[in-house]
Input
Amino acid sequence: MSILVIAEHNQKELAPPTLNTITAATKIGDDVHVLVAGSGCDAVAAQASKINGVAKVLHADDAAYTHTLAENFASLIAANTDGYSHVLAPASFFGKNVLPRAAALKDAQQISDVTDIESADTFVHPIYAGNALETVKSNQAIHFLTIRPTAFDAAAAEGGSGTVEKISTTGDSGLSKFVKEELTVSERPELGTAKVVISGGRALGSAENFSIIDALADKLGAAVGASRAAVDAGYVPNDYQVGQTGKVVAPDLYIAIGISGAIQHLAGMKDSKVIVAINKDEEAPIFQIADYGLVADLFNVVPELTAKL
Amino acid sequence: MKIIVPVKRVVDFNVKVRVKTDQTGVETANVKMSLNPFCEIAVEEALRLKEAGKAEEVIVVSIGGDKTDETIRQGLAMGADRGIFVKTDEKLEPLAIAKILKHVTETEGAQLVMTGKQTIDGDNNQTGQMLAALLGWPQGTFASKVELGSDSVNVTREVDGGLETLELKLPAVVTTDLRLNEPRYASLPNIMKAKKKTIDVIELASLGLDTAAKLSIVKVSEPPKRAGGIKVANVDELIDKLRNEAKVI
Ligand SMILES: Cc1cc2nc3c(=O)[nH]c(=O)nc-3n(C[C@H](O)[C@H](O)[C@H](O)COP(=O)(O)OP(=O)(O)OC[C@H]3O[C@@H](n4cnc5c(N)ncnc54)[C@H](O)[C@@H]3O)c2cc1C
Ligand SMILES: Nc1ncnc2c1ncn2[C@@H]1O[C@H](COP(=O)(O)O)[C@@H](O)[C@H]1O
Output
């Protein structure tokens, strides 16, 4: 049984969720291959070949893969599934965009956001914002899975000695073109992999006030997240959103500040190891899942917390 | 230009669903049902394109059981022109939905399909991408801005690190994210008007498509519950707990 993992990267290095996806793959079988599609990204292919558990890297080098255009990636994946029983990608915005398209090209039904692998054909994934876990058996010749990164440990970056094989590319579809990107610049750790995450909600009231959250995050070397309400109100960029339809995080410590705890928000953070909630309403639902709750006005206690740490 | 908007009837986002004791699914009897929020955003965006003179007709399509037409009616009350109801009692997977939507899209000769990025029941986030694959069209997923031209559409997408803008050749599939727009409420006169709009009903079986399930559900279970925690009195106690009990700072 051979398993193909689609690497997510920025042409320079692998994105961390790729490592968690490789761990998921090794739970299915031991012949794990990684597809690295990019443009001038030999370094990424080399990096992938060293990951513990990786037997082989398929490297497709073409200007068509400079950006992660779904049309080009899906065609490439679909052209390279022969001999594979499983195709896995991280359930990041990248994997969610690309993998369903590839699955459909192979007349396969994907299973999204897999959190547990029971056997080679039986998988667990959350539905209804994580309020239920569905176990499904896939009756298909090839299984397409997106993997929830927080549910699997990262594979060791060293220890593997996979071979790198150049594969032919499927070129540019001509259907879509990259125009521009506006990436959020931040010196802080990445939200998905940070050990500590501090999130702010609607209660912050403005982008300026959000600096209260930033100051605490800097003190703890934490990443900053937010509720949908805070993002919608423009306090922080869209990629800060934690939740059912944003990012899923599971840090050692999650501090929710001025966030009520709607099910859609909980879906993105309830697997954190320790949860702290700071909210002035003692009835706020967030307290039901918090290990430590502090009923207080955030504008008083958060600066105090930052000062005392 | 015709715009197709596929919509799904789902358990309302405010309902905390309960898993059935026999583990066959979640309880949906006597539970409030609504138009999936992302689909509502898709209807709104299509209507705005029509109002801006960039599209002639907005067609709402839904696949499902008996009361699905109520959901279609909601889209019509927002302002969509007509509806298509593909009737089936089977629970279909996203690939099957995409096959049906491909058929409808081709039959209608639509140039743009606007789906939600995700249904909040299955949380699949697949149908739009699959439909685009089956049609051989480009896809603009997780859209937070859509600029429609005559032969292309620019889509700004919410991605892992921020925003990305793509130019897609028409015809295309766009899937909507939360910040694309704020959907309108249907006004009473429009709700009345919607009652007179046409909904074509198609029996799924009459389409002759292969929509058989590829997955079987083994069980649906409760997620593990978090044990309740404690309230701390002040910042000092919080710091003490985090340092000495939880040992996370
Ligand atoms: C389709 C869909 C998808 C969604 N996806 C997501 C998602 O991915 N992520 C997400 O987060 N949400 C999501 N939501 C939104 C979700 O339902 C909630 O509306 C949102 O999480 C609320 O954000 P909030 O807690 O910041 O705001 P509110 O619910 O308004 O809560 C603000 C809280 O701050 C407290 N507060 C006010 N002032 C102070 C103060 N001075 N000090 C301390 N506390 C104070 C209040 O007591 C209150 O509890 C989604 C909704 C829908 C419909
Ligand atoms: N039964 C259905 N009928 C019509 N459209 C659907 C149906 N299921 C899903 N869709 C569309 O596909 C989008 C994404 O759904 P999903 O892939 O299930 O997360 C939804 O927001 C709808 O636009």
About this structure: The pocket of adenosine monophosphate (ligand 2) is lined by residues B 6-8, 36, 38-39, 42, 61-64, 94, 97, 115-116, 118-119, 122, 124-128 (CB under 6 Å). The mean pLDDT of chain B is 97.
